[in-house]
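input
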Amino acid sequence: MRSSYFIGLMSGTSTDGVDGVLAQLPDDASPAPAPHQAPADASAAPIPASAITVLADASLPLPASLRRELLALNTPGPDELARAALAANALADCYADTVAALLAQAGLRAADIRAIGAHGQTVRHAPESGYTLQINAPARLAERTGIAVVADFRSRDVAAGGQGAPLVPAFHAARFGCGTGRVVLNLGGIANITVLEDPVRGFDTGPANMLMDAWIQRHQGRAYDHDGAWAARGRCHPGLLDALLSEPWLALPPPKSTGRDLFNLDWLQARLDALPARPDPADVQATLLRFSVETIAQAVVRHAPGARAVLACGGGALNPVFMQALSRALPCPLGTTADHGVPVQSMEALAFAWLAQAHVLGRPACLPAVTGARHATIAGCLYPV
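output
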């Protein structure tokens, strides 16, 4: 078994920064399945932790002006095309800076890297209308780094009738294996779960950090609620929680995916306005945390009733108040992916390194059982150097 170096880059719905990893991934020589075939047998042995070597990891914050623009581009506004193009260039520059930091940390050259997987920043996601849009400038990133770039991971699956999301369950299955009774829970801006059964299933459950981040940004000017301290000072508001949980999208069966198109401050404000009295802002924060916890727990109970363990990753896994509330609400023990060799902040970036490798090797990585597509597809488009 030979190995190859790949870089994965991720800037998620939290829009707070770029996470990157440079990893050495196992690369077997077996022939790739045709695009219409399913990916490798989900019952195959998982990739052991020792077979994936993370040589470098880096997290760079997004400039405040770029973060504001990316968030603004989630809703219609003036001169969107030019603004989106300029934001894409600025994001690609942040990606390139992250790549430079990874190469320096690992002591490698651009020529040593087979490809970069760069997801871009989702600003519109409407698979029901046949499109999804991630701001990115992969050609600029390839030019700046001198490394081939794989990007636009969602579009082909959407073209095949799928949700184009979530993208990481195939990696979860490859890394952790199936039939173990485990659920992988990603706590980014949006929460999604991967049920490690055969076939693998996965879907978005609703907000994780996204609404909490937006609320504290509005009231305190902070990007996120550090350690859940503000939520811990508030009390859950039962009326508001009931209003949030009545959202029809939550009752839809998988496959399903969501984002800022639905769960945003306008959505929250409409429910606040319907209350007889305005709750204290800290109570709203506490209620938003409880909302995330309840939607995640309900999804696990409904769709993974035999789960024996939940492994959390993403930024929310570093929030002790969030994790304690989840531990109380879930029907099975809660741990993290770090307990199994994958740091919680590295999971999604590592997944995009793996997805880049899958593209280069011609391996389908979008799972129809996850996305609802008519057939499995090879994710991404390649920008060579």
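quick obs: Confidence is low (pLDDT under 50) at residues 29-43.
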